[in-house]
Design goal:
The complex is a heterodimer of chains A (about 290) and B (about 230).
Chain A (H helix, E strand, L loop, with lengths): L1 H27 L6 H17 L5 H29 L4 H23 L15 E3 L2 E3 L1 H23 L1 H11 L1 H6 L4 H23 L9 H16 L4 H22 L4 H15 L14
Antiparallel strand pairs in A: 1-2
Chain B lengths: L1 E10 L2 E11 L4 E5 L6 H8 L7 E6 L2 E2 L5 H6 L2 E4 L11 H8 L6 H14 L1 H5 L10 H13 L5 E5 L7 H16 L3 E6 L2 H7 L2 E6 L2 E7 H6 L1 H7 L3
The chains are: A mainly alpha (about 290), B alpha/beta (about 230).
The complex binds adenosine-5'-triphosphate and magnesium ion.
Magnesium ion (MG) binds next to helix 1 of chain B.
């Protein structure tokens, strides 16, 4: 039970990162390998806002989301759209996102240096005992901000003009163009939303893990795995996959061996893919946003 | 009036439209018939610039639209009802119709058209909350037509609306085509069902292997021996 609960906050983080992968994949069919680096940039922007501008945690969160979201839209407009207009094969577009990832890491190393940083938590991380299990206020903060962001995303996709256009593009790009939607613009919206959500994840884990210039690699990979477990390209799948991965990791680490946690987790991934090749939560023909 | 003058188009390095010239008169039904792979869908995709013709011009209301972006062509009042319907599968019928009005700002007009379209297609009214993927083929075709009309287009391009439908549903669809025309809209109808299309249309064109090979009024083409042999199965 305790290990199950411990898995939820990190699961929420994985869900947020997984959402980024799935949203972009659903809209434009691109696997964005810079997703993890948006998490890293979010953490560093938050760190900068907190220590140098001396603003509070909420402002850091807000500014990080905005700055990194703009950067995401820029990546789509400045790098990916020209590639597609020149009819680059899809794999080359994916490789370009890998390039973006490496550029981000290098710039982060230059700007913020090689030393790991840590962002103080706005709440205490001393565990509280509740009905026989212990949770920290930090965990509760991560979970509640994470879930709030998911609800905001859901409502954005359901109720706003841009959100509906994005769903239309994801479901049928050709038909979307026929009703007058600019699919490149929807792609940019997807990139901005994904980057913004990733940045939020970065701020949320910054008080727990060290912020380093190459943290994007591991968190990005975990988020990707979560998206695949849930069924790449679906919103509910990304959320479920993230929590699933978080909980499994925590159970594997706590009950079996923390040294082999990753090995166990990834073995499980392979088993899941054997059993349900399209992902745990992807129903047949019910793809995408 | 829509005028297509000598357009050529290719997929990769293969030229599939060699020279297509046709016009669709305002307020009339013009049909384009031809066999599989003749280039009908390609022609329609060129009009909305989903595929860019590399030579030739397309004029709409006297203005050149060749090379404009699809989203801007749609905003000039041109709507394509694509082959194979292409409804948004995971959206409800209502959401699909709303997406059809994506380019419009006149909320009142949209609401009026919404009600009118539900009268035109009462089956859609019963299924407003249902996901489009769960509709039957005929219902999806009606939804595709309804979605297009929600944009209040002046020119409606229809690509094989009768494909795969039972005769009674085909009749319903064709009666809607006539109603659309009666509203003063211009219709360019692509069909494999040549007899039906030529009976309905004022003017017809026959396309073969990426070239327009015949043109005439609907009646003329119906009586043309070559058309009879190739497309009417007589
Ligand atoms: N996406 C594509 N890539 C390559 N070639 C294509 C593509 N779409 C169509 N073609 C080719 O272009 C030619 C014209 O195709 P088009 O779809 O316009 O025919 P059509 O008249 O609409 O036929 P049908 O009645 O079967 O729908 C065909 O030879 C087809 O194989
Ligand atoms: Mg066709």
């Amino acid at each position: 039970m305790q290990f199950f609960l411990n898995g939820l906050p990190i699961g929420a983080i994985y869900s947020l990162v997984a959402l980024g992968y799935s949203l972009i994949y659903a809209a434009s069919g691109v696997l964005n390998w810079s997703q993890g680096d948006m998490v890293m940039l979010g953490a560093y922007v938050g760190f900068t806002v907190f220590f140098f501008l001396k603003l509070g945690f909420i402002s850091a969160l807000f500014l990080a989301i905005v700055v990194v979201a703009l950067l995401g839209a820029l990546v789509q407009y400045m790098i990916l759209r020209p590639l597609r207009e020149r009819e680059a094969p899809p794999i080359n577009v994916v490789i370009a996102t890998l390039g973006v990832a490496i550029i981000c890491r290098n710039l982060a190393l230059g700007i913020w240096g090689p030393d790991p940083q840590i962002l103080p938590s706005p709440v205490s991380s001393r565990p509280l005992s509740l009905a026989g299990v212990s949770v920290t206020p930090q965990d509760i903060l991560v979970l509640s901000v994470g879930i709030t962001l998911m609800l905001i995303l859901h409502s954005f996709l359901k109720n706003t003009r841009e959100g509906k256009a994005l769903r239309a593009v994801a479901q049928d790009r050709y038909a979307a163009q026929l009703v007058g939607i600019d699919p490149e613009r929807s792609d940019a919206v997807a990139f901005a939303a994904s980057a913004g959500i990733g940045a939020a994840a970065g701020i949320l884990i910054a008080p727990i893990f060290f912020v380093t210039f190459n943290m994007g690699a591991s968190i990005g990979l975990k988020g990707f795995v979560a998206a695949v477990i849930g069924g790449l390209g679906t919103i509910p799948g990304a959320i479920a996959g993230g929590f699933f991965l978080g909980v499994v990791e925590s159970l594997a680490g706590g009950l079996i061996s923390s040294g082999y946690r990753d090995a166990i987790t990834f073995s499980l991934l392979i088993v899941v893919l054997w059993l349900k090749p399209s992902g745990l939560f992807l129903r047949k023909n019910r793809q995408k946003v | 009036m829509l005028e297509i003058c000598g357009i050529k188009a290719k997929y990769g390095h293969t030229e599939v439209l060699h020279s297509v010239t046709l016009r669709a008169e305002t307020g009339r039904i013009t049909t384009l018939i031809g066999g599989n792979g003749a280039g009908k869908t390609t022609t329609l995709n060129c009009i909305v610039n989903i595929l860019k013709p590399y030579e030739g011009q397309i004029l709409w209301k006297g203005q050149e639209i060749t090379g404009l972006r699809s989203k801007d062509i749609v905003r000039l009042g041109i709507s394509l009802i694509p082959e194979g319907r292409h409804v948004f599968p995971r959206m409800t019928v209502r959401e699909n119709l709303e997406m059809g009005a994506y380019i419009r700002k006149d909320a009142n007009g949209v609401q009026k058209d919404f009600e009118w379209i539900l009268e035109l297609f009462p089956v859609l009214k019963e299924r407003l909350g249902q996901e489009a993927a769960t509709l039957s083929g005929g219902e999806q075709q009606m939804l595709a037509i309804g979605r297009s009309l929600m944009g209040n287009p002046d020119l409606v391009l229809m690509d094989e609306p009768s494909m795969g439908l039972a005769p009674i549903v085909v009749e319903e669809v064709f009666s809607v085509v006539e109603q659309i025309m009666a509203m003063g809209k211009t219709v360019l109808l692509v069909e494999q069902n040549a007899a039906l299309a030529l009976n309905l249309a004022h003017e017809g064109y026959v396309i073969e292997l990426g070239r327009i090979v015949l043109r005439g009024t609907g009646k003329e083409l119906l009586r043309n021996p070559e058309v009879e042999k190739a497309y009417l199965g007589l």
